[in-house]
Amino acid sequence: MASDTTLCILGASGDLTSRLLLPALAQLLTEDPERSVKLVGAGIDEWDDDAWRTVVAKSFASAGASGPAVESVRDGAIYRRTDITDPDGFAALLRECEGRVALYFAVAPAIATKGCEALEKIDLPEGIMLGLEKPFGSDEASAAALNELLAKLVPEDQIYRIDHFMGRSTVLNVLGLRFANRVFEPVWSNEHVESVSIRYDETLGLEGRAGYYDHAGAMIDMIQSHLLQVLAVVAMDPPSTLDAIDFRDAKAAALRATKVLDDDPVAHSRRARYTAGSIGERKLPDYAAETGVDPARDTETLAQVTFEVQTSRWAGVPFTLRSGKALTEKFSEIVIRFKAVSHLPRGFEGSTEPSILRLSLGPDRMALELNLNGPGDPFHLDRGTLEAEFGEGEQRAYSEVLEGILDGDPTLSVRGDTAEQCWRIVQPVIDSWQRDDVPLEEYTAGSTGPSDWPAM
Ligand code: BG6
Question: What is the pTM of this model?
Answer without folding.
Answer: 0.96
